[in-house]
């Protein structure tokens, strides 16, 4: 399904609110210049390793308000230009690695831990998830360029003792409020 094959100059694609429930292999082939992709308010449930194949220049993907519960660990690995991801309001329990981001909007999901994920960002929004262990903060504070972190309305109730020392001197703002 090479539907976009002849649209090589396209830089922005808005597929907002189209009841899309899956993305076929090679769906985005031919969109090598695409910078922004809006797939918000659809019915997507899974993101596979091939979902974003061909999007070599993509910088921003909006996937908020879908039904995403499963994301393959390789879904975003090859997107070296991806700077902003919006995955708010889904059903995500486990994150893939995001090695190149500047901003990650991950609120309103079902994340219970972020301890084993590679996330790089200056702006990290994790509001209204199921995070319970304040020990995860030590992991987040190790993100070298993290400046803004939003963690309000999680389920923080315990803190596993950690020998880790917070080394991030870039943090400007942190919200742990109710």
Characterization of this structure:
- This protein has one helix spanning 136-140; strands spanning 12-14, 36-38, 46-47, 60-62, 70-71, 84-86, 103-105, 123-125, 148-150, 173-175.
- It has 178 residues and is mainly beta.
- The protein has a single domain (1-178), classed as Ribonuclease Inhibitor (Leucine-rich repeat, LRR (right-handed beta-alpha superhelix), Alpha-Beta Horseshoe).
- An 8-stranded parallel beta sheet has the order 1-2-4-6-7-8-9-10, with no helix packed on it. A two-stranded parallel sheet has the order 3-5.
- The protein is elongated.
- The relative contact order is 0.11.
- The model has no long low-confidence stretch (mean pLDDT 91).
Strand order of the largest sheet: 1-2-4-6-7-8-9-10
What's the end-to-end separation, in Å?
46 Å
> Regarding CATH, which class?
Alpha Beta
Poorly predicted ranges (pLDDT <50, ≥5 residues)?
A: none
> How many alpha or pi helices?
1
CATH architecture annotation name: Alpha-Beta Horseshoe
What CATH calls the topology is Leucine-rich repeat, LRR (right-handed beta-alpha superhelix)
Q: Beta-strand level of the residues, as a percent range?
A: 15-25%
Tell the overall outline.
elongated
Order of helices and strands: EEEEEEEEHEE
How much helical structure, as a percent, in the residues?
Answer: under 10%
Number of separate strands: 10
* Superfamily (CATH H level) name: Ribonuclease Inhibitor
What structural class is derived from the secondary structure elements? Answer: mainly beta
Q: How many distinct domains?
A: 1
